[in-house]
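agent> Task received from the user: take the single chain below, predict its 3D structure, and emit structure tokens. No templates, no multimer pairing.
agent> Plan: (1) validate residues, (2) run structure prediction, (3) serialize to tokens, (4) report one or two observations.
agent> Step 1 OK, no nonstandard residues flagged.
tool_call: predict_structure(input=
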Amino acid sequence: MHRIRILQVGDIHYPDWQPVPSEIDAKDKQFSPSISEALRSSAFRAVLRKLRYLSSTDTTNGVVFVGDFTTKGRSEFIEGAFRHFSLLCRGGSESSQTTPLLFVPGNHDVNRIDAFELGKVEKFRKISQIASRLGWCPVPLDRPVSVTVGPKEMGAELLLINTSIGSWELQNLPEFLRDKLRTDDLSKLVDLGNSKSVEDGPAAPTVSAESDTPKDLIDQYYAQLDTPYVSAPMLDSMMEYMQAAERSYGLIVGHHNLLPQKMPRIAPYAEMLNAGFVRSQLLSANKPVLYLHGHIHQDPIEVVTDPRKPRSQLISISAPEISAGFNEILLFVSEENELIGVRVIPYRTRQADGTIVEEENCFIPCPSIARSSLDDDTWGLLKRLETYRAERGTDLLWWNQVVDLVRSTPVAEKLEDALIMLHASGRIDVQDLAKSNRDWRIQVKGK
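)
tool_result: status=success, residues=447
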């Protein structure tokens, strides 16, 4: 078994960066501000330090940025964001100079004037040129881009897609709003409907604070009228990628979410227009597919399957906005290039003390692998576990008990991999698999 390690970084919004200081009990208002500030730290800086450290290690195979480098189409900030993360992720060591840096466009990366003057695809051309000039992987425009990360012959092929084709495409908007957006005066707000709540409206969490009032039409547009979708050519290429006979799983990166977000969003185009169709198409391939995205500034991890297709599995993982942290994604892949499972390691900020911490890991097993994927050593481990169960009359073992059981045997050096393989094959159950292996409890299935 081998591992592919990817860092997933959410929405950047470079112009909005404001390091939020940690909390401090400053009751004495006359105290020296310089000393007060010296006692503070910023969790945002901690995020960048952690990202720099992890991206420079030999075990990181790629860093994926899931869109929105800038805010509201302010394209003058995009090159600065690319340069910042080029230096951050590749400036730490000699080994990091070749770390693949990947980017998919977000709706905020689309400049209004570029969209009007250059058209649906060409509006992304500047972003693509900047990425190329700075040595990043190609940026998807109207077709997906395939990028392989990891060791040769054992790497993972990622498919980068552009879900922001519809950003600033006026034909997607109501006619009255199209006319307004074609003018130069965008200082006036447009009434988009009655905002009063109704008693029989949808259930929603209690509002803790009032939303900021939009300052102008552009502000209002980006808050409510994003029109994400996967174009027909993009989807056709995605399905060619998924249906390739030699491919046992898929790894796709886009900006927008395929599943409805948890927080209710009051907007005409709150979700991807054809998300349901895209989702059904991916499940029809009857293979596990991992979909990494951002956009919603939240971090849900969700799994969808079709019970009529036993190997279908759509694993959707969102990264939070960068100020809240980022994800480390670890893929466990068999020698036959089957996806065994995915571990998500969330690094999240704590404003209280200005630190970033590793939160509880999440392990997602993939559909059971075939018996042929188990080598002789792994198969021998299963026989030892079954013999132990028969002799001791118990089917539960702690990790250290299994270590003692296989000591001085060939499987001892790859025990963690062997147990994960047996778990994926459905022959044992490893409890607390998301935790450190010393906390694992191994249950042997069967009689």
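agent> Step 4: summary for the user.
Confidence is low (pLDDT under 50) at residues 92-96, 194-198.
agent> Done.
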